[in-house]
């Protein structure tokens, strides 16, 4: 396995994540090759099952790429995974799901022990779409405070074990909140390397702009040691994440900053997650593209539509959106805020979305429409 230095005076590392189920060995190896050819310093894979673990053995033998494994809901596999990868990434929001009788501090200590035993790094990956329950309730109206406190607490848990080879990420789909969370954390723990990213940045070019906004503000302050540009793109275009990341780094180093036009954050906001190995149906990418193409009539409205491709961040991101589409293997669940409207096949959900969107627009024009029971089409 290769060794990658992150933090200190090391160059900023650019990484991405394979957009395939890891157990699909042929496709995953192709994705790893695409990302490695694009110049990825680190490639992340998700492991949710022993089938994924079995595939990872073959992937490790087939590539010299620096690999990070995303534990997702499978933290108990860490002992088997650590010998095969360079980094383990865990999300604090997932540790309460399994072995609920085992305290979270014990689980974190065990993860740190596995990493230490195999000379493996850790990433504490805090995501606004999947806060641990206690932080979600304690900081219900303040994503930044929830992110920072969760990260601070998990740094302490990891360090109790005497483990120091770790990085932290604090991600949100809003670049302004990414900036605030990372600035606040960096002020409190300047010694901890930070992985930067705007999660669910969405389709290019908007996803590139959102990411650039956050990276320019943070990297200009010396904040950020590794990064990912999370774009909603087809399988064969995943290398674009690496290319854009390198371009942003080069532009910042050369003093080329892109101004954001007044009102950029006003109007329709489409949040779409990057295709990754958790996605159960890649049709969500074309669905997101079609939503962007067909919702231009709402371009000037302050409405957020979230298109999520998996079960991990889907619930959190769709709950906080005006309209949310949570895509499963065969059906897309349509939500209006936290309320579920229904579930439809991929090729039937778009008219349902437009019905809900037009209702929202009509209610804003005539707020009494909903109360009076008027029919809106």
Describe what this molecule looks like in 3D.
The protein is α/β, with parallel strands linked by helices. The chain folds into two domains: 241 residues, Dihydropteroate synthase-like (TIM Barrel, Alpha-Beta Barrel), CATH 3.20.20.20; 104 residues, Sulfite Reductase Hemoprotein, domain 1. 40% of the residues lie in helices and 17% in strands. It contains 13 helices and 13 strands. An eight-stranded parallel barrel has the order 1-2-3-4-5-6-7-8, surrounded by five helices. The protein has a five-stranded mixed sheet with strand order 9-10-11-12-13. The longest helix has 18 residues. It starts with 12 loop residues before the first strand and ends in a 5-residue tail after the last helix.
């Amino acid at each position: 396995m290769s060794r990658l230095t992150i933090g200190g005076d090391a160059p900023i590392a650019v990484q991405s994540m394979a957009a395939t189920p890891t157990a699909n060995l042929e496709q995953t190896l192709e994705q790893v090759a695409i990302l490695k050819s694009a110049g990825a310093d680190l490639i992340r894979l998700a492991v949710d099952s022993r089938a994924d673990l079995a595939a990872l053995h073959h992937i490790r033998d087939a590539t010299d790429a620096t690999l990070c494994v995303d534990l997702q809901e499978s933290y108990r596999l860490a002992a088997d995974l650590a010998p095969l990868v360079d980094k383990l990434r865990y999300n604090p929001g997932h540790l309460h799901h399994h072995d609920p009788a085992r305290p979270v501090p014990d689980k974190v200590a065990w993860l740190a022990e596995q990493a230490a035993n195999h000379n493996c790094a850790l990433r504490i990956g805090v995501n606004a779409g999947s806060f641990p329950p206690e932080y979600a309730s304690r900081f219900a109206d303040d994503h930044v405070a929830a992110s920072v406190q969760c990260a601070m607490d998990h740094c302490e848990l990891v360090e109790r074990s005497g483990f120091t080879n770790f990085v932290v990420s604090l991600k949100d789909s809003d670049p302004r909140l990414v900036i605030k969370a990372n600035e606040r954390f960096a002020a409190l723990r300047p010694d901890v390397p930070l992985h930067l990213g705007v999660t669910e940045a969405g389709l290019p070019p908007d996803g590139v702009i959102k990411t650039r906004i956050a990276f320019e503000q943070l990297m200009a302050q010396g904040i950020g040691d590794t990064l990912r540009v999370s774009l909603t793109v087809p399988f064969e275009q995943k290398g674009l994440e690496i290319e854009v990341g390198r371009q942003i780094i080069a532009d910042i180093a050369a003093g080329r900053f892109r101004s954001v036009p007044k009102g950029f954050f006003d109007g329709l906001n489409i949040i779409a997650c990057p295709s990754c190995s958790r996605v159960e149906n890649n049709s969500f990418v074309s669905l997101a593209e079609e939503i962007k193409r067909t919702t231009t009539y709402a371009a000037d409205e302050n409405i957020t539509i979230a298109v999520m491709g998996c079960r991990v961040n889907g619930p959190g991101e769709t709950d906080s959106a005006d309209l949310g589409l949570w895509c499963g293997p065969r059906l897309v669940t349509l939500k209006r805020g936290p309320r579920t409207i229904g579930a439809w096949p991929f090729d039937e959900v778009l008219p349902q979305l437009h019905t809900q969107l037009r209702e929202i627009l009509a209610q804003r024009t005539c707020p009494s429409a909903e109360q009076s029971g008027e029919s809106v089409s």
